[in-house]
Protein backbone atom coordinates (compact mmCIF):
# COMPACT_ATOMS: atom_id res chain seq x y z
CA UNK A 1 0.00 0.00 0.00
CA UNK A 2 1.30 3.45 -0.90
CA UNK A 3 0.26 6.81 0.46
CA UNK A 4 0.68 10.11 -1.28
CA UNK A 5 1.34 13.25 0.72
CA UNK A 6 0.92 16.72 -0.67
CA UNK A 7 3.16 19.26 0.96
CA UNK A 8 2.47 22.95 0.76
CA UNK A 9 5.50 24.72 -0.80
CA UNK A 10 6.03 26.77 2.37
CA UNK A 11 6.60 23.65 4.45
CA UNK A 12 3.31 24.08 6.30
CA UNK A 13 1.28 20.95 6.81
CA UNK A 14 -1.96 22.74 6.02
CA UNK A 15 -2.92 25.58 3.67
CA UNK A 16 -2.22 29.02 5.10
CA UNK A 17 -5.23 30.76 6.56
CA UNK A 18 -5.79 34.49 6.38
CA UNK A 19 -4.02 36.29 9.21
CA UNK A 20 -6.24 38.91 10.79
CA UNK A 21 -4.40 41.51 12.86
CA UNK A 22 -5.00 41.98 16.58
CA UNK A 23 -5.44 45.47 17.99
CA UNK A 24 -1.79 45.59 18.99
CA UNK A 25 -0.73 44.90 15.37
CA UNK A 26 0.39 41.32 15.96
CA UNK A 27 -1.01 38.38 14.09
CA UNK A 28 -2.49 35.36 15.87
CA UNK A 29 0.78 33.43 15.63
CA UNK A 30 2.56 36.03 17.71
CA UNK A 31 -0.13 36.10 20.41
CA UNK A 32 -1.21 32.50 20.96
CA UNK A 33 1.34 31.82 23.71
CA UNK A 34 3.21 28.89 22.13
CA UNK A 35 6.92 29.20 21.38
CA UNK A 36 7.49 29.66 17.66
CA UNK A 37 10.16 27.47 16.06
CA UNK A 38 11.40 27.36 12.49
CA UNK A 39 13.40 24.33 11.33
CA UNK A 40 15.43 24.77 8.14
CA UNK A 41 17.09 21.72 6.59
CA UNK A 42 17.31 20.56 2.97
CA UNK A 43 16.74 16.98 4.12
CA UNK A 44 12.96 16.95 4.27
CA UNK A 45 12.88 13.98 6.66
CA UNK A 46 15.08 15.85 9.14
CA UNK A 47 13.10 19.07 8.74
CA UNK A 48 9.74 17.38 9.22
CA UNK A 49 10.90 15.17 12.10
CA UNK A 50 12.36 18.06 14.07
CA UNK A 51 9.29 20.18 13.35
CA UNK A 52 7.00 17.42 14.63
CA UNK A 53 9.17 16.97 17.72
CA UNK A 54 8.85 20.67 18.58
CA UNK A 55 5.08 20.41 17.96
CA UNK A 56 4.91 17.53 20.45
CA UNK A 57 6.74 19.72 22.96
CA UNK A 58 3.98 22.34 22.64
CA UNK A 59 5.62 24.71 20.18
CA UNK A 60 4.25 26.14 16.97
CA UNK A 61 6.82 24.67 14.60
CA UNK A 62 7.17 25.04 10.86
CA UNK A 63 9.87 23.92 8.48
CA UNK A 64 11.55 24.95 5.25
CA UNK A 65 13.85 23.01 2.95
CA UNK A 66 15.74 25.98 1.51
CA UNK A 67 16.77 29.50 2.40
CA UNK A 68 14.23 31.35 0.25
CA UNK A 69 11.29 29.58 1.85
CA UNK A 70 12.87 29.95 5.31
CA UNK A 71 13.08 33.73 4.93
CA UNK A 72 9.46 33.89 3.79
CA UNK A 73 8.21 31.81 6.71
CA UNK A 74 10.35 33.77 9.19
CA UNK A 75 8.85 37.06 7.97
CA UNK A 76 5.36 35.77 8.83
CA UNK A 77 6.08 33.55 11.86
CA UNK A 78 8.77 35.62 13.60
CA UNK A 79 10.18 32.50 15.27
CA UNK A 80 11.79 32.68 18.70
CA UNK A 81 14.05 29.74 17.82
CA UNK A 82 15.49 28.86 14.42
CA UNK A 83 17.22 25.52 13.82
CA UNK A 84 19.23 26.19 10.67
CA UNK A 85 21.26 23.76 8.58
CA UNK A 86 24.42 25.47 7.36
CA UNK A 87 24.58 23.67 4.01
CA UNK A 88 21.43 24.54 2.07
CA UNK A 89 21.07 24.15 -1.71
CA UNK A 90 20.48 27.86 -2.33
CA UNK A 91 22.61 29.56 0.36
CA UNK A 92 24.99 29.02 3.25
CA UNK A 93 23.30 29.19 6.65
CA UNK A 94 25.46 32.21 7.52
CA UNK A 95 23.87 34.16 4.65
CA UNK A 96 20.39 33.24 5.86
CA UNK A 97 21.34 34.23 9.41
CA UNK A 98 22.49 37.67 8.24
CA UNK A 99 19.18 38.21 6.46
CA UNK A 100 17.17 36.98 9.45
CA UNK A 101 19.06 39.29 11.81
CA UNK A 102 18.32 42.25 9.49
CA UNK A 103 14.62 41.87 10.37
CA UNK A 104 13.94 43.86 13.59
CA UNK A 105 11.48 41.15 14.70
CA UNK A 106 14.22 38.52 14.52
CA UNK A 107 17.06 40.26 16.36
CA UNK A 108 16.31 38.51 19.67
CA UNK A 109 15.60 35.10 18.15
CA UNK A 110 17.92 32.22 19.04
CA UNK A 111 19.45 30.93 15.83
CA UNK A 112 21.03 27.52 16.25
CA UNK A 113 23.09 26.31 13.31
CA UNK A 114 23.32 22.58 12.70
CA UNK A 115 25.83 20.88 10.45
CA UNK A 116 27.14 17.46 9.57
CA UNK A 117 30.59 18.92 9.00
CA UNK A 118 33.26 19.63 11.59
CA UNK A 119 34.69 22.38 9.35
CA UNK A 120 36.02 25.12 11.66
CA UNK A 121 35.53 27.80 8.99
CA UNK A 122 31.80 26.99 8.68
CA UNK A 123 31.45 27.30 12.45
CA UNK A 124 33.33 30.61 12.54
CA UNK A 125 31.30 32.00 9.64
CA UNK A 126 27.98 31.02 11.25
CA UNK A 127 28.88 32.56 14.61
CA UNK A 128 30.16 35.75 12.93
CA UNK A 129 26.87 36.07 11.03
CA UNK A 130 24.88 35.95 14.28
CA UNK A 131 24.16 32.30 15.08
CA UNK A 132 23.99 31.73 18.82
CA UNK A 133 25.37 28.19 18.67
CA UNK A 134 26.60 25.64 16.16
CA UNK A 135 25.68 22.01 16.86
CA UNK A 136 26.98 18.91 15.12
CA UNK A 137 24.45 16.53 13.51
CA UNK A 138 22.90 14.33 14.64
CA UNK A 139 21.78 16.63 17.43
CA UNK A 140 20.88 14.71 20.60
CA UNK A 141 17.32 15.22 21.83
CA UNK A 142 18.67 16.45 25.17
CA UNK A 143 20.34 19.38 23.38
CA UNK A 144 17.09 20.25 21.63
CA UNK A 145 15.21 20.09 24.94
CA UNK A 146 17.79 22.44 26.44
CA UNK A 147 16.92 25.01 23.76
CA UNK A 148 13.40 25.09 25.19
CA UNK A 149 14.53 25.02 28.80
CA UNK A 150 13.13 21.50 29.19
CA UNK A 151 16.19 20.01 30.87
Describe this structure in words.
The protein has one domain: Rossmann fold, CATH 3.40.50.2300. The protein is built from six helices and five strands; from the N terminus they run H-E-H-E-H-E-H-E-H-E-H. It has helices at residues 28-31, 44-56, 67-77, 93-102, 120-129, 141-147, and strands at residues 36-40, 60-64, 81-85, 110-115, 133-136.
Task: Draw up the topology in text.
Layout: H1 28-31, E1 36-40, H2 44-56, E2 60-64, H3 67-77, E3 81-85, H4 93-102, E4 110-115, H5 120-129, E5 133-136, H6 141-147
Parallel strand pairs: 1-2, 1-3, 3-4, 4-5
What keyword list fits this structure?
151 residues; alpha/beta; Rossmann fold; 6 helices
Report helical residue fraction. Answer: 25-40%
Whole-number tally of structural domains: 1
**Global morphology:** globular
Please give the number of β-strands: 5
CATH topology: Rossmann fold
Q: What is the makeup of the main sheet?
A: 5 strands, parallel
Distance between the termini: 40 Å
Do you know the CATH architecture? 3-Layer(aba) Sandwich
Please state the average pLDDT score: 84
Q: Tell me, what is the CATH class?
A: Alpha Beta
Derived structural class: alpha/beta
Look at the structure and name the CATH superfamily.
Response regulator
Enumerate the spans where pLDDT stays under 50 for 5 or more consecutive residues: 1-31
Radius of gyration over all CA atoms, rounded: 15 Å
Amino acid sequence: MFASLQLHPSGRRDPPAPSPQNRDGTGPEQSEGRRRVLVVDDDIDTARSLSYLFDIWGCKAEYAINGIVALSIAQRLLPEIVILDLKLPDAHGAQITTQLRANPGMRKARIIAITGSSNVEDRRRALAAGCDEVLLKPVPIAQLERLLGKD
